[in-house]
């Protein structure tokens, strides 16, 4: 069936506008054009930033209850149109319709949590009389919005990761300019519509679509932008950090996530969770399972069970509710994954399952005996490939888990609390999931990593903290005669 190509507009300070140029948005499953979207110019981005700053300056007295109301109304709109949002995510991206529905549910939660956290942006009283000579002073601190936030979002969660930046920004009283991924801009534009329908004041939110090379630097370097919130790759993150200069930067830059499976684990639960964590969202997931370290006594049985479970996965049409795995975001990415796998095989790795590409589709793939020098062992694959290794014990597993330049999340399956605590203390990551794979997250928790996995933490509460500044107030009291 031939879909009608939609001509979309971008949101600039409350106005839905076109640009002189446009670009196509494709369904990666069949490379069919599904929409045309404005290709913004540098001047469009600069205008959006200027309008955002004007809106922020006018919103200093924007009451908390009004911010909460807008956020809750936006969540209501998404909920009332949830299937439209899910279909949009599935059409422009890699997720199956069931995965897309899950993302919509999480987006609603993220926005509602943002509304709840808006009421809890609190300061603290300060006991100035703890210092000798300050007995006649009292005071407190409070948090105030940072100003204009620049948000740059990726393709793999094109709705919820936008909500993770927009929701907290609005909750804190900031203005925000979003530059969504060029391959998946439709979900971000649809989220903007929810906020417009919710009565968000003009200028508080702009979603500017276009090429990062053309408009990205205008956002990251502009002195009116007081914070950059970026989710994406390490190289882009390094470039943005250099461009940003003296302003706040929050970055989630991906990972190469390990999971440890010990002899005393719930075997079937570990297999099931690791298969889901490795191949959900076609492996295009920053906390997806990439390396699994299994104690030697159960390694062979784990590997066989893992292969059998993987064979049951249905690869195909994203909109079919029986499909487990769709295509990667484009054929270029599928070819990159194929190249990395072939390099590892050339270096001595063993292909246990998969390893076949057809267009943008790449089969769920299991590798063993992968040398630690292989690119696929060191870098983030961001595709449906998992590496499984035998280890001697938990100490060996933790040491090998840490032997990469990333540290976002890790998982460990064990019934031994002492081994769990050892792993918690010694895994160099931002989060340890005990008896879950690395692929576990709720939107309220602090989320981020160490090493090349990023700077700062996301999660609604943590993001609000990052998007606000603290001001101290002291009163020197006069003696009453």
User: How many β-strand stretches?
Assistant: 25
Shape: globular
Q: Strands across the major sheet, in which order?
A: 15-18-19-14-13-21-22
CATH topology of the largest domain: Aldehyde Dehydrogenase, Chain A, domain 1
- CATH-level-2 architecture of the largest domain: 3-Layer(aba) Sandwich
Rg, Cα atoms, Å: 24 Å
- Level-1 CATH class name of the largest domain: Alpha Beta
Q: Point out poorly predicted stretches.
A: none
Going by helix content, strand content and strand pairing, the class is alpha/beta
Total of DSSP H or I helical runs spanning 4+ residues: 15
Q: What share of residues are in beta strands?
A: 15-25%
Helical percentage = 25-40%
* CATH homology superfamily of the largest domain: Aldehyde Dehydrogenase, Chain A, domain 1
The total number of structural domains is 2
InterPro entries: Ald_DH/histidinol_DH, Ald_DH_C, Ald_DH_N, Aldehyde_DH_dom, ALDH-related_metabolic_enz
Pfam family, one: Aldedh
Family: Belongs to the aldehyde dehydrogenase family.
Protein name: Aldehyde dehydrogenase family protein
Compile the SSE list and pairings.
Layout: E1 6-7, E2 10-12, E3 15-17, E4 21-27, E5 32-39, H1 42-58, H2 64-80, H3 82-92, H4 97-118, E6 124-126, E7 137-145, E8 148-152, H5 160-172, E9 175-179, H6 186-197, E10 205-207, H7 212-221, E11 225-231, H8 234-244, E12 248-252, E13 257-261, H9 267-279, E14 289-295, H10 296-311, H11 331-346, E15 350-353, E16 357-358, E17 361-362, E18 365-368, H12 375-378, E19 385-391, H13 394-401, E20 406-407, E21 409-413, H14 417-426, E22 431-434, E23 450-451, E24 454-455, H15 460-466, E25 468-476
Parallel strand pairs: 1-5, 8-9, 8-11, 9-10, 11-12, 13-14, 13-21, 14-19, 18-19, 21-22
Antiparallel strand pairs: 2-3, 4-5, 6-7, 7-25, 12-24, 15-18, 16-17, 20-23
Helix pairs in contact: 1-7, 2-4, 2-5, 2-6, 3-4, 3-6, 4-5, 5-15, 9-10
